[in-house]
Amino acid sequence: MERVNGIGGLFFRARDPELLGRWYAERLGVDQPPSSYDTSSWWQAPGPTVFTAMAADSEHFGRPEQQWSVNFRVDDLDAMVEQLRGHGVPVKVDPEEYPNGRFAELHDPEGNPVQLWQPAGADRRGPA
């Protein structure tokens, strides 16, 4: 069976797309889409990706009307949290260390949930 080899984009509605794009670039390092086809889009480091549907009443999303959330992998959760807090972004670090890593939660300027994940265990090592 032919398989996809990754996620090529995540598209979502925003009240102020330009502002939100700059926020993700300046706070998390997610490059904005290029202005020409001669420039490459943002490249992410190889690593694990979770793609899953969740129950309609899942508390993972916060607000009941929230339809999506994004989880970004990071190498150093503590450094990323410090950087974000230095820019006035409230971040909640989960105090528990899980077999698959550590997590922190924040919201972008439009209230969308963002999760940061520092992988551990099998997700840090890669496929067997």
Q: Kindly state the percentage of residues in helix.
A: 10-25%
How much of the sequence lies in strands comes to 15-25%
Return the string of H and E elements: HEHEEEH
What summary fits the major beta sheet? Answer: 4 strands, mixed
Uncertain segments: none
Average pLDDT for all residues: 91
Please state the second-level CATH architecture of the domain at 69-128. Roll
Overall form: globular
The number of distinct β-strands equals 4
The number of helical elements comes to: 3
The CATH superfamily of the domain at 69-128 is: 2,3-Dihydroxybiphenyl 1,2-Dioxygenase, domain 1
Radius of gyration (CA) equals 16 Å
How is the CATH topology of the domain at 69-128 named? 2,3-Dihydroxybiphenyl 1,2-Dioxygenase, domain 1
Structure class: alpha+beta
Distance between the termini: 20 Å
CATH domain class name of the domain at 69-128: Alpha Beta
Structure description:
With 128 residues, the protein is α+β, with helices and mostly antiparallel strands. It has a domain at 69-128: 2,3-Dihydroxybiphenyl 1,2-Dioxygenase, domain 1. Helices cover 20% and strands 16% of the residues. The chain contains 3 helices and 4 strands. The protein has helices at residues 17-28, 77-86, 122-125, and strands spanning 70-73, 92-93, 101-107, 113-119. It has a 4-stranded mixed beta sheet. It starts with 16 loop residues before the first helix and ends with a helix. 6% of the residues are buried. This is Glyoxalase/bleomycin resistance protein/dioxygenase. Keywords: Dioxygenase, Oxidoreductase. Residues 91-128 are annotated as: Disordered. GO terms for molecular function: dioxygenase activity.
